[in-house]
Amino acid sequence: MTRGALWDPEGPNSVLHGDNLPILRSLPDASFQLIYLDPPFNTGRQQRRESMKTSRSASGTRVGFQGKTYETVRGLVTSYNDAFDDYWAFLEPRLEEAWRLLAPTGTLYLHLDYREVHYAKVLLDALFGRECFLNEIIWAYDYGARTKKRWPSKHDTILVYVKDPNKYHFDSEEVDREPYMAPGLVTPEKVARGKLPTDVWWHTIVSPNGREKTGYATQKPLGILRRIIAASSRRGDWVLDFFGGSGTTGAAALQLERRFLLIDENPEAITTMQRRFADADVAFVAAA
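Below the sequence we write its predicted structure tokens.
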């Protein structure tokens, strides 16, 4: 692992080991066409609380992204929920950096579950503007235990926001196709090609015994990241994932001829990615 310049946009694919917030603040504006985030729910340390939360308001006194004004809105919510307050004090400044780092045609994909996604939607509406909301993708799967006390939870949510709703990049022709559920109702040509996925994606988890498995606890399927990267970036574009984890974003980017920057503070994640990219031209850099 080397030390020195953290990231060179003219350099190789890279993995940075360190706290992602100071690293993000060191990166130049508008550097990434695509940002995918699968943040942890437990950061493993006590986060500093911040009482100020923002919402778009015509009468707000704080001037923020794109010259829009904001006001404080979340005091009543966070006053009785310390865990919520700690988590969003951690994630909000990182999402602000994500907005800054997106290229003008860029897209953010934020991957969460039912416990936090509704808070994230309010926050991202404030940071990006409601007009920049593109999709709420439901990733549905079927595995694990099933409770009999409520409907079993078997999906994640991926919120999709664009930097500019008038010029974002989305290429449906590059996306993998799905089989028709009623192939007899369409032409043979359509059956052979398959249909364009909707905002509900049925995709299995990473098999515990499959070749894709790295052993990293929160690993996401390669097929999910391939679909995201194919749709919202072009060959040669830079893709950023600052909760790098097992490196699936980088693996998908390599397959699709995109360039990537991954960041993670967890030594286990770095070790996993070093194994995963052992045969690829990937620079590993210690950020501290």
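The longest strand covers residues 102-112.
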